[in-house]
Amino acid sequence: MTVAQFSQETSGRGEFVRQANRFTGRVSAASTSRPGEGPDDQGRWPVEPGRYRLIWSRACPWAHRAVIVRRLLGLDDVISLGTVDPIRDERGWRFTLDSDGRDPVLGAEFLAEVYRATDSEYAGRVTVPALVDTLTGRVVTNDYPQLTLDFSTEWTAFQAEGAPDLYPEPLRPEMDELMSEIFTDVNNGVYKCGFATSQEAYETAYRGLFARLDALSDRLATRRYLMGDALTEADVRLFTTLVRFDAVYHNHFKCNRNKLTEMPVLWEYARRLFQTPGFGETVDFDHIKRHYYGTHDAINPSGIVPAGPDLRGWMLPLADR
């Protein structure tokens, strides 16, 4: 068995088992708390524009989807944004992109400081995205699946006019099932391939990944988006994995049956999303490559960052349909 990148998240069979999200508070329109107060007796924080700060890494797919949803819904001026450096060391995500090495709102040098201020005994991996209450400097949530759904359903009073309904109520049962499959086999599936420490665990994840990509390709062969003619949260969740596929997952995580550019339906679909406002302008391939190749020492001990792939294909003309 090879050395694990994250030993605390690796099973005895060499499988990558992602840690649970530690902070699961929710900002809710149903909160009975007044502006400036903490969560109500049901743990619901009040919806307040300007109060919360979304911390993300441009490299991280889980954080990336929160930024895309925030952009699509027109919440950029409602929820502020803090960006960490793509390179992290044993102390975790760093605010070295800011002029004095500290987040200008939170005053922290490391996101870990905010985690410890919220839970002094927290010993897990510090993750993004994290939604932070700027009044107390505490993490409200790092529960990335619920965070973006709440942007759609709880922040409606502050969304831009004409903002898309990314989580339409009639479609939710089907969407929830589809997004669960995408998470298991694709979003997390690439990590299960890349962080596996046994051949069996790797091959199981590899088969699941490409079986699901084939099924999604079949689904998209007859529709513009995953749920039909309209963009939804399901598309956002799939996009953030697809946009990283050839740059890092194909090589770095050994997801090498095909490149995205060799899967015609998914490649056309991913390019369509990339060229949609809110998507492509939030992608930073430099941060993506430097993070994955520069911080996973067990997988890439040399730290060399590949020069490719050629990114010009993302702006190729789209087929009419």
Automatic annotation (TrEMBL):
<feature type="region of interest" description="Disordered">
    <location>
        <begin position="1"/>
        <end position="45"/>
    </location>
</feature>
<dbReference type="InterPro" id="IPR047047">
    <property type="entry name" value="GST_Omega-like_C"/>
</dbReference>
<dbReference type="InterPro" id="IPR004045">
    <property type="entry name" value="Glutathione_S-Trfase_N"/>
</dbReference>
<dbReference type="InterPro" id="IPR010987">
    <property type="entry name" value="Glutathione-S-Trfase_C-like"/>
</dbReference>
<dbReference type="InterPro" id="IPR040079">
    <property type="entry name" value="Glutathione_S-Trfase"/>
</dbReference>
<feature type="domain" description="GST C-terminal">
    <location>
        <begin position="168"/>
        <end position="295"/>
    </location>
</feature>
<dbReference type="InterPro" id="IPR016639">
    <property type="entry name" value="GST_Omega/GSH"/>
</dbReference>
<dbReference type="Pfam" id="PF13409">
    <property type="entry name" value="GST_N_2"/>
</dbReference>
<dbReference type="InterPro" id="IPR036249">
    <property type="entry name" value="Thioredoxin-like_sf"/>
</dbReference>
<dbReference type="InterPro" id="IPR036282">
    <property type="entry name" value="Glutathione-S-Trfase_C_sf"/>
</dbReference>
<feature type="compositionally biased region" description="Polar residues">
    <location>
        <begin position="1"/>
        <end position="11"/>
    </location>
</feature>
<protein>
    <submittedName>
        <fullName>Glutathione S-transferase family protein</fullName>
    </submittedName>
</protein>
<dbReference type="Pfam" id="PF13410">
    <property type="entry name" value="GST_C_2"/>
</dbReference>
